[in-house]
TrEMBL record:
GO cellular component, one term: membrane
Gene3D superfamilies: 1.10.530.10, Tetratricopeptide repeat domain
Listed name of the protein: Soluble lytic murein transglycosylase
Presence of keyword Transmembrane: no
One BP term from GO: peptidoglycan metabolic process
Position of the signal peptide: none
Length: 717
């Protein structure tokens, strides 16, 4: 089904438009459609019947929406009838033709479908054209018009090389006798998209060629790793069993690579004895495989919390395989494990050795930072500054530079330097990285020295009132019609064609006015960074720090006694203001709530458990997220700990506070063991203070530089 595997997403344009436009669809109907609720189709049908009874002007738009919902339920004949009974709504003629083509295709009329797709492609905007052309090629092929289908599919698969298009092009090439081209496309589908349904069909067709085109052992291993990464360990094992079906593993490298893949798969299947046997074989292989096998052993020890054993294994890996990437990883983690265990002298030595052995490592800046951190804990401040200075000079584009500059200043202060020395250094951190967590820390240090910090941003964000660009008219029309996936595709298509800050600024503000905060933020991140954080322009800052969904945020914050600024800071980090986002862990919506958490929150609020799709609704998602944040703040009393708990869970935050809560706040954060959580906490707290500064009443309260003890009772999920 070419081009129809839509990710669950929609445009939030409706938030700023529906209330002010007279629509045949009721607001309840549009909300149900937007959230893919089970009752959506019935509501649309009822609205259409009412519209037809009153001969309202919006019947064509309602019929188009009803047809798309019928298609999603597999009712092609019904969709065809709806579309043929009503004219296309203004601006949406190509979409009407496209969905009519879909209905005809799935009703078993590929030749007529091809005519509809050709009509759609002729007038399609860039957001629809690739889909229309791809479906045109597929319909022509299904209708037996291979000669006409081939050039369409050649172009479509070149422009958008999806699994579906490559497979269809392979069929067209095969029908024209272009065996090598067909073979190449089928192999690409099987290897690049191994978990796609067409991949198995591609393999079958490869085996039916004359002569058969068997995959190599390495290709089978690649597919197995893809299955394993996708959580399909049983499929991975099946793939590995096929690897030697037509040719045995002959070289030591092939045997070792296959053994390592088997070991990883068997561990994932919970068969450790068989896995260990395969792993033993892999460890005897050539260096590149043996090193990966030893790294697997060390990582398993680390996951089992056998940190001392893991440390020995990592160091041994580095000694045995210094030229392999796995040896690089081993050397780094040997030092990191020393640091986590509080063996600061050993960590300094380990990271110094790491720098000597791996001077071109991609982790060199991290190695320098962690050596400096160990030296800071040992109060060897001049040596720490030396390592930090190497980081700044040797990796000037590293994301670690702001923290290196902050800790250079802080180490001077801790070493007894006067304010005359340290204050300019702190001011330099604020000037060079004004929106960073380290600018916030530097400001607090300056206040403690009796100095007034420089103002990072002279003017708060300012939203501009701009005319709606003509480029957005189609997206608006699609949203008004309830075709939210198409509206999102259209906005993304327009955004992708912006090439300069001059184009980006008015477009971003138009998106803000329409309630498209996520797209506005994306435009700003791509084109307005220098204007916002270099020139400190308030119009650019507005797209980076919008008061997104303000009425819902402020209402939920008031109801649950939590700061709106904290809600916005979490929202910015979690979803970048995009309501449709779903993570690999099934976290959903603006505040990235997983369904079990949504159910637990509903229980505490004495509400029915929400349907998982409901968590994408901005109002519900914000309300639940605000309640959860309020509970975290009640238990942890500090935004740093609340943010850590939001990301890693309350249990982890309690553990870290108990183990290292006596450290000053800045050191406490640097020693959070999870890299993701460290970065998360820093961004959320920096954004919290920026939102407070930009939109609060008066100066924000100081950041408490001590770590409070969490309450024993409180939210634990």
């Amino acid at each position: 089904m070419t081009g129809e595997a839509h990710v669950m997403k929609w445009s939030s344009l409706v938030a700023g438009l529906v209330s002010s436009v007279a629509l045949a669809q009721s607001p309840e109907t549009l909300e149900a459609v937007r959230l893919h609720k089970p009752e959506a189709r019935a509501l649309v049908q009822a609205d259409l019947q009412a519209c037809e009874a009153h001969r309202c002007a919006q019947a064509g738009r309602l019929a188009l929406l009803a047809a798309t919902l019928a298609l999603s339920d597999g009712e092609a004949a019904e969709a065809r009838g709806l579309l043929e009974a009503h004219p296309a709504p203004p601006l949406l003629e190509p979409f009407h033709a496209y969905y009519r083509g879909q209905a005809l295709f799935y009703a078993g009329e590929p030749a007529e479908a091809a005519q509809a797709f050709a009509l759609a492609a002729k007038g399609a905007p860039p957001s629809l054209a690739p889909r229309a052309k791809a479906r045109l090629g597929e319909a022509l092929l299904r209708a037996g018009k291979t000669a006409q289908a081939a050039p369409v599919l050649e172009l479509a698969a070149t422009q958008t090389p999806s699994a579906e298009l490559l497979y269809e092009r392979a069929l067209a090439r095969g029908a024209k006798g272009l065996t090598e081209g067909a073979r190449a496309d089928l192999r690409t589908v099987a290897l690049r998209y191994p978990t796609h349904p067409y991949a198995d069909e591609a393999l079958t067709r490869l085996e039916l060629l004359n002569p058969p085109a068997w995959l190599t052992l390495d290709e089978h291993v690649r597919r197995a790793r893809a299955f394993l990464d996708g959580g399909q360990a049983s499929r991975a094992l099946e793939e590995l069993q096929k690897a030697t079906a037509h040719r045995p593993a002959e070289t030591p490298l092939e045997r070792a690579r296959l053994a390592l893949a088997r070991a990883q798969t068997l561990f994932a299947l919970g068969q450790p004895e068989q896995a260990e046997k395969a792993l033993a074989e892999a460890r005897k292989g050539p260096p590149e495989i043996a090193a990966e096998a030893e790294l697997l052993v060390a990582r398993r020890a680390l996951r089992a919390n056998k940190n001392d054993q893991a440390r020995e294994l990592m160091a041994a890996l580095d000694r045995a395989f210094p030229q392999q990437p796995a040896g690089d990883e081993g050397g780094f983690f040997a030092g990191w494990l020393d640091l986590q265990a509080g063996r600061f002298e050993e960590a300094v030595k380990a990271f110094a050795l790491y720098e000597q052995r791996h001077p071109r490592s991609r982790r060199r800046d991290e190695g320098l930072w962690f050596r400096a951190l160990a030296l800071l804990r040992l109060e060897r401040y001049p040596e720490a500054r030396e390592a930090l200075a190497l980081l700044v000079s040797g990796a000037p584009k590293s994301s670690l530079v702001p923290q290196a500059r902050y800790w250079m200043a802080r180490s001077q202060e801790l070493g007894g330097a006067t304010a005359a020395v340290t204050a300019p250094a702190y001011e330099g951190v604020i000037a060079s990285a004004p929106a960073s967590f380290y600018a916030l820390l530097a400001s607090e240090r300056l206040r403690a020295l009796g100095r007034t910090p420089p103002v990072a941003f002279p003017s708060p964000p300012r939203q501009l009132l701009v005319p709606r660009p003509p480029e957005l008219e189609l997206a608006v029309a699609l949203s008004e019609a309830g075709l939210f996936p198409d509206a999102a595709e259209e906005v993304e298509s327009r955004v992708s064609r912006i090439r300069s800050a001059e184009q980006a600024l008015p477009f971003a503000h138009a998106l803000l006015q329409l309630g498209e905060f996520g797209h506005a933020h994306a435009v700003a991140a791509r084109h307005l960074w220098g204007r916002a954080f270099g020139a400190r322009a308030p119009d650019a800052l507005a797209a980076f720090y919008p008061r997104a969904f303000a009425s819902a945020v402020e209402a939920a914050a008031t109801r649950h006694a939590v700061e709106p600024s904290l809600v916005w800071a979490i929202m910015r980090r979690e979803s970048a203001f995009r309501p449709e986002v779903a993570s690999a862990a099934d976290a959903r919506g603006l505040m990235q709530l997983i369904p079990p958490t949504g159910t637990s929150i509903a229980q505490h609020l004495s509400e029915p458990a929400p349907n998982p799709a409901d968590l994408f609704a901005p109002d519900l998602n914000i309300r639940y997220g605000a309640w959860y944040l309020a509970q975290l703040m009640k238990r942890f009393s500090h935004p740093v700990l609340a943010a850590a708990a939001y990301n890693a869970g309350p249990k982890a935050a309690v553990k870290w506070a108990q183990e290292k809560g006596t450290l000053p706040l800045d050191l406490f954060i640097e020693e959070i063991p999870f890299r993701e959580t460290r970065g998360y906490v820093k961004q959320v707290v920096a954004d919290l203070y920026l939102y407070r500064t930009f939109y609060g009443q008066g100066a924000p309260p100081p950041l408490t530089m001590t770590v409070p003890a969490p309450a024993v009772e409180g939210v634990g999920f």
